[in-house]
Amino acid sequence: MGKPTAFKEIVREVVPYRPPAERLHDFEEILTPGEDEHLQSQGSRCMDCGVPFCQSADGCPIDNLIPEWNDQVYQGNWRAALDRLHQTNNFPEFTGRVCPAPCEGACVLGIIEPAVTIKNIENAIVDRGFEEGWIVPKPPSTRTGKTVGIVGSGPAGLAAADQLNKAGHTVTVYERADRIGGLLMYGIPNMKLSKSVVDRRVDLLQAEGIEFLTGINVGQPEDYSAGHMVSIMTEGGIGMSQLDSRELVSRHDAVLLATGATVPRDLQIPGRELSGIHFAMDYLTRSTRSLLNYGHHRATELSAKDQRVIVVGGGDTGADCIGTALRHGCRSMINFELLSKPTDERTAGNPWPQWPLIYRTEYAHEESANRFGEDPRRFALLSTEFIDNGKGRVSGIKTIQVDWSQPSDNAPFSLVPGSDTIWDCDLVLLSLGFLGPEHGISDPLTQSTNIDDAKWLTYTDRSTYRAEHGSYATGMPGVYAAGDCRRGQSLVVWAINEGRGAARAMDIFLMGHSSLSLPD
Amino acid sequence: MDNRFRQPRRPVGLYRPEFEHDSCGVGFVAHIKGHYSHSIIDDAYTVLRSMDHRGACGADENSGDGAGILTALPHQFLQRVVEEDIGARLPETGSYGAGTIFLPQVTEEREKCKQTVESIIADQGQTVIGWRAVPTCADEAGIGRTARLGEPYIEQLFIGAKSVVDRAAFERKLYLIQKQASHRLRSDPAMVQANMFYICSLSTRVMIYKGMLRTLQLMDYFPDLSAPDYTSHLAMVHSRFSTNTFPSWDRAQPGRFMAHNGEINTLRGNINWMRAREGMMHSTLYGSDLQSVFPVVEPDCSDSGNFDNVLEFLLMTGRTLQGAIMMMVPEAWQKHETMSRDKRAFYEFNSALMEPWDGPASIAFTDGRYIGALLDRNGLRPSRYYVTHDDRVIMASEVGVLPVAAENIKEKGRLQPGRMFLIDFEQGRLVPDEELKSEFSQKRPYQQWLEAGRIQLSDLVPGLDVPGLCSDTLLPRMKAFGYTAETLHFMLIPLITEGRDPVGSMGNDSALACLSDQPRMLYDYFKQLFAQVTNPAIDSIREEIVMSLACYVGPEHNLLEISDQHCSRLLIEHPILTNAEVSRLKRISQRDWKSREIDITFSESTGEEGLLAELKRICGEAEDAVDQGFQLLILSDRNAGPDRVAPSMLLASSTVHQHLVRTAKRTRVGLIIESGEPREVHHHCLLIGYGADAINPYLAYEALWQVSRDGGIDAAQFTDDEVVKSYRKGVAKGLFKVMGKMGISTLQSYKGAQIFEAVGLATDVVNYAFTDTASRVEGIGFDVLAQELFRRHELAYAENIDFQSSVLPNPGEFHWRAGGGKHGWDPQTIADVQQAARANDRTAYDRFSQQVNNEARGRYTLRGLMELKSSPRPVEISEVEPAADILRRFCTGAMSLGSISSEAHETLAIAMNRVGGKSNTGEGGESPERFKTQSNGDSKRSAIKQVASGRFGVTAWYLTNADELQIKISQGAKPGEGGELPGNKVDEQIARIRYSTPGVGLISPPPHHDIYSIEDLAQLIYDLKNANPLARVSVKLVSEVGVGTVAAGVVKAHADHILIAGDAGGTGASPLTSIKHAGLPWELGIAETHQTLVMNDLRSRVVLQTDGGMKTGRDVVIGALLGAEEIGFSTAPLITLGCIMMRKCHLNTCPVGIATQDPVLRKNFEGLPEHVVNYLFMVAEEARGYMAQLGIRTFNELIGRVDLLDTKEAVDHWKADGIDLSPVLMPALKPSADTGVFCQIEQDHGLDASLDKVQLLPMCKKALQTGDAVQIELPVANTNRTVGTTLSHEVVKKWGEQGLPDDTIVIRLAGSAGQSLGAWLANGVTIDLKGDANDYVGKGLSGGRIVVSPPAGTGFSAEDNIIVGNVCLYGATSGKAFFRGKAAERFCIRNSGAMAVVEGVGDHGCEYMTGGRVAVLGSVGRNFAAGMSGGIAYVWAPDRRSLKANCNLDMVGLENLSDFDLDELEEMIQLHHRYTGSDVGARLLSQGREPMKQQFVKVMPSDYKRFLEQAQSVSPGISARSPVSPQA
Fold this sequence. Notes:
heterodimer; A: alpha/beta; Fumarate Reductase Iron-sulfur Protein, Chain B, domain 2; FAD/NAD(P)-binding domain; 3 domains; 5-stranded parallel β-sheet; 18 helices; B: 10-stranded mixed β-sheet; about 15% strand; globular; disordered N terminus
């Protein structure tokens, strides 16, 4: 398998992004199409390990058959590679673009050399499949007569829908936004995952018989804040219809909650009430809607153009905010990170095959440096106050430096005296992660009034829906939960893992057995 | 008498009586003209006593394993004693029969036996003359306790002939009497001592005295033998070395017509085929009486006994002794191109009658009229003879067993492979083999018969439509037959692209089939057995000349006749049939042959419960077809599909075979398989091993054809025909290897030989379908087999078509896969143990050990099913022996420098030296720089020095620098196989310490060529003990059924230490078939060994170690509880050093610098000794925790305490439910209350009596101390073994590797030297022997000089006679040897640097040679230079064609001598002449250079030549002139 000595002879080279100077002018995908020859030679670096750690618990959550398809690519058998890729992954075109690739972190070659470019290869296989027309709708040959309702059309919901549909169940997916895809649609900006790629897959699923219903808000109506998805939709003129949770449950033989972890973590410091401070999702959603509806020809509701922008929080979403703001034409860009700057190499406490906690420069950081001449990130900063410009709008953030090497009594870090700084800004984007799912949909399912008087859905301490990984069953018979709403915020690939697992559990619930495959 | 300790005839615990082995010394003395004398008896007795060291005794040193003598019927003597003792008169010679009979000691039972015998005699119309109690003197002879336990009452019976036409007819009557009496009495359940009844002999011509005696006790025990009027013209003697020491008088030899030194490897098959043939036998000589003879093969016999049974039967039904032997043990005729046509036809004809009884053998046989001897086809036993001027012949396993004056010797010879040595007393002469065989082969027109009779596949009418590839249905069919992605990737594709059984590395750590959650193929439940110690594996590649696949199949005819009809059978050259061939067979019509196709598939709706009924249906159809006269049965599963389920073809075919054997119909029909199931070599082995005649693996072809179409292999190269051709070629190689592993050379004898052990199959399955296969822990029944079958079927033909996946599943059997089968090493365990070892992180270790020990995970091994009982009285952990003490019991496994990098190798050594454990060199020598201690106190010296079959770098200095010398008999990952280090791994350093050439590949032979039997092992142990008296000698065995018995023999061979390795052990490279399917778990092996040794009271003399996948403290404790004092680890320490189980060792691409010699990759090595130390301490600490819980304070108290183990209370596994570990957990039976259960007694190696100790060391005391020269003259006898070795040890100990200057110590010997003369003889020591020598002269020669020449006054021409035995200069590394005369088989094999001159050699000369120079001034035998990769041989060959025919040209070329070469040769001959006074040498030198150039041929290894040419172009200083390897 592979070429036994290739790893010695060929160095890792990833498929390049478009040059920053070029890509900053549009929202088109940053990733360039890979060359066959390049990918084949990169595939040959795969060592066909006796114990492929890329499939381990530290590696790919859906146990992609990485050594198998790497070898097929090396041999130029793209079709065979695609067959193997689809064995475990419903949406390689998503993970191939957005996954941080824990498989590469666990790659055995990573012990001595940079890892195999697994993610690039995955992406190339599936893109090739679409290009060649190998991926066509394959509706199930028979139907079971059972119906399944899935709430939420993010990666978990879609993976479950795909699997359950394959098993012959009639699947309806409920989405409150105007477009299908959840986080894939509005959470990840277009340059990272083109919305046409999402639509392509959704169209395929639809052609295979899955029913998608948009603009449906399941659960109790609430007062939504300005940045909430329902508010954005309503503002955008989307007519929302409401569907009672219990009504939904009684409508279907089984229901899956795949609503994501959409409650953002807030930064409750003085001045939080000022205008110009937005949650990242609010900003990103509006940006993408604007792009899709108007191609950015019309000013967005929330643009960073000519603004001095500070992004608080250093994760992937933070980076996406940076990339988006740069494309909007921001005047300056700073990114706060509470943690210290990671080391360039693994530390002793972070051995292989664990995910390497090392300093990485993402596309947006590179772009920011390209635009402004320096990396936007500032590490070990704790924000202490938003400064008012006197007109109720934010004009800056006050921070203090933290020292992680000196824990204090009430925090794992201490404050560095005299390190107070004020950073000027016009727009603050909060990207501090997510707390858990919203409960509007689930609260009605938590208490006994009706519905067979059975058991009920409950929450964990972290506010997620309580269900075991593997069984995915909430306390309520026939009601399942998967994805971020169950496990808390995580990766797209984990959402696929959960969607697939839940589908199998539901299939067994419905039929008594299941032929659906299951990741470990 | 205590009956508890009679020989267990039934399994006890893990012990199975049928795996007892023996091996021996055999010899005879005869007067060619048939003159009777008593001196013949005395001489034979001298011969016997001189071979005492070839026999053995057990714990009780006065109980021998058996000794006996066969003589002519001493008529004069008998007449006298019969009259004196019982007052009867014997009639004249020939008209009475006499025999020695063992009878029960219990009087009533004895009387019953005698009455029964008398009534049988009466029934047969003969008269009883009387019974004479044979006088025995147990006390005077000093018979030991064990022997006395089984001592029978011995009487002689005399039967008078009545109304028989001639002597032969009377002999036949005696045979009937003997058989009927044995059948009736030996199995009589009413008698307690039934199996004491045994008829040693009953004949008009010969008489046997034997018993469970030591050789020295025979004459004293039987005073009869000393009577001066006891005369004979022949006397055959035998001394037995049995692996066990249970009392068994009847197993002593000679048998009734033969004595055997060797082992029949194919016994089960031979027995089954004999049984099957009985249905077709009829005899005009016996008529209806013949039935009362059956079964021909008696139960409860040793393999020699079974052979004797059949030989006797053939003789009594009309064959001659020599004819019968030629049929049972044929020469390797198939590939013998120079054999005459007639002789080949004769053998080929015989092969249509009977399969060979295959195995190493030296058989001496006699019926009184003839006496003869024969060697097996591969010459695996020594047999030497003298013919004297006074008409005597002395034949024995050794020379020098009877002193004969030099001038009386007419001829000195040896038995040659497959050749027969025969004396015809009536003609009064020796009949040469050629004459004998040409007489036999011309008796009948065999060639004509064959040409007219045999049916060949190519003669048959082509089939109508030959099925090809059906792509559309291929994938589901593959899934239904259990194909996986791995089948293609690891097995089928490499099989055809590499043309051999695919190679892999590291050990098998996946679940036993019976514990696996995956549906497994039935084949996975069987483990291949292999030869170890008691017989050698065969090198099927280098010694291919003895291997053969061709078989006659289809109906046999009456074995008791010979006619042209007998070869009217179908000749199948290769057991793997093409689709075209099988369709021809379906339509066969030649000679009215018909074939019947039986569809083995059944309707899916029948369900799982239907399996057994379907098997019965298939058997019924098969039997009907036989009854209806069909000649061929074709079992087919072609109809398998969505609605038709195919039961395992192995199950179906073996069931049919067993059924037909049982009903004695099997030999009336050929059994052909057409199946989608078999594809791997192991599958074919099993099908054939359980009786199939030929196999058409159609799905394997189709799968590969599809791969070719899909671009997985080069379609241009692999056309459909080429795919089939390559597949068959690869499988043939694989079959040879598996057969060779067991020491079997022909497929015909492998067929039906059932050389497998089942693990995890229930008794009802085994009894029904795989009768008599060992299966010791029970397991799954037909219900689970059916479940697995239906699971596969469902996977293939899922109801919902949407789930019929487009790719094959990958269950992760070879490489770990997420969601696949369990492996001992998975990502989590590797990551955790690395973290634990690197950071000394106890938490990580706990995670690791918990996962490994955890019951769910642990269930991939047998120990996973065991539970440590909690003691009601646990002790405080502080009271338990400290970890540091436990660490001293830890060893790392044998991993050679070569298989792993020097960085890894040295790190392990340092780590083990730091903790007081032992590291192991592995096979490959060790650089002497490592013997010095480093400045920081660390040492890189490996305490254990391995001595493996390649003997790389095994010098006197190497052996001296060891605490333990380990003889590697087998290796867990590839028992019965040798190894190869590919040229790309042989770098400068490795070549230097292995005494070889960089870039030239190295071969380790499958067998040690100095261990073909247990007494050979005893000899090697003795050799090594002499080479380093302070080191303990260890023998490494691999777990398989019978290993306990082998181990008992090894203890009797005086090993100090035995390692029982498990099947999970690792390897740097081995065929996957072996990694996966050979050997058994260590749990079974160590438990069986402990039980057997305790039962034999041998346990207290030996330290037991076990290894094979050890990981945690729990493993250590279980190892001890099952019987081990020491524990070995290999993979786990490597993992702590960075190994991540890439399984790429064989490719040299280990990315972490462990299993590679690539300098770039070696830089990646990041392991430190601390990592190993940390890990082992944590293991020991964990073990202490368990000890505390068990309430045990010291390790020794753990040993053998199986009572502290329990099978898990709740075994919750769909398959494991049926497993029964009680035989493993059975406490060992102690012969007495004080029997030791761990090592407490030191072995007595008898070194104090050695010539070195008694004479040489005292005489060389000064020379050793000061280096002053000394000259010694001494007589020598064959009982002086290993002369000069201890002396050499002292030389290097004092003077270091370089020894002393040449000729500092000169030892002149006269006589016949014992085995291993001058083994590892060091620089500065010269041995000059006048006389002759036995096997292994100059083994491991390390710089000394050995000269052997006949004494003055010899009456024969030296160059025509044999002067030294087999396997001389094996593994020699430097030094010189000159032999004036011929050497026997395997001269100079694996020589890596010595110079040798000899005047002719037997077969396999210079095999595997890697360096040095050899000049052969006479002819060479067959297969010369096989596997020779270095060094040069100059061979005298005026007739180049015959040299070419005898040379194995795979690795060497034949060249003319250059001037340089001629200089070298001339110098060698000059030396030879100077030292030996050789006539040949003188003649050659006097002829001058030009004739010499014409007459000699240079045998030059091609790789070596390439190296020399390259080296010369780089550095002109290096030339082929240097007589030793260029680096030395």
